[in-house]
């Protein structure tokens, strides 16, 4: 039996220009494993809680305090909850509230000569972790771009005095990182 591969387009909501990735993942992946794929290809560091919303059903890691009503993502396979043409949401970091729109663009048989998962395309760098959500990211970019901005030095030092290139994204590097899951 040939494995089914899903082509997903993952787009970060409420940021301009839109940060997006196109990935090929096995349909048999659990949502937990898909979460890890998204972390690697988007550029997040998996420091925060997350959830999936598929047709109004919430999936995620079980909440030990019982405050969040989530179905266990370890029990949900991608191919069991979505199909070609489906749309769903992935939310990362309930403080910063990074929402990702996910579209299942295609589903096809695996190429026996290809290793999955793979990031085939994308644009723009992922915002830094803990920058404060879409609003904080806009402030961050404005401060870095303007040496006269009152928060310029603060944002530079907060970012470890590293340059932040908003236009930078390397699908090959993302694939190398995500293949550690395979």
What's the gist of this structure?
InterPro entries: MM3350-like_sf (IPR024047), Plasmid_pRiA4b_Orf3-like (IPR012912). Residues 4-171 form the Plasmid pRiA4b Orf3-like domain. With 182 residues, the chain is an alpha+beta fold.
Write up this protein.
It is a single chain. By secondary structure, the chain is an alpha+beta fold. It has 2 domains: 4-125 and 167-181, Structural Genomics Hypothetical 15.5 Kd Protein In mrcA-pckA Intergenic Region, Chain A (Roll), CATH 3.10.290.30; 126-164, no CATH class. Helices cover 24% and strands 28% of the residues. It has helices spanning 31-42, 78-81, 133-145, 152-158, 171-178, and strands at residues 4-12, 20-26, 50-54, 57-60, 71-72, 87-92, 98-109, 118-123. The chain has an 8-stranded mixed beta sheet with strand order 5-4-3-6-7-1-2-8. A hairpin with a 5-residue loop joins strand 6 (87-92) and strand 7. The mean pLDDT is 94. Pfam families: PRiA4_ORF3.
Write the layout of secondary structure elements.
Elements: E1 4-12, E2 20-26, H1 31-42, E3 50-54, E4 57-60, E5 71-72, H2 78-81, E6 87-92, E7 98-109, E8 118-123, H3 133-145, H4 152-158, H5 171-178
Parallel strand pairs: 4-5
Antiparallel strand pairs: 1-2, 1-7, 2-8, 3-4, 3-6, 6-7
Helix pairs in contact: 1-5, 3-4
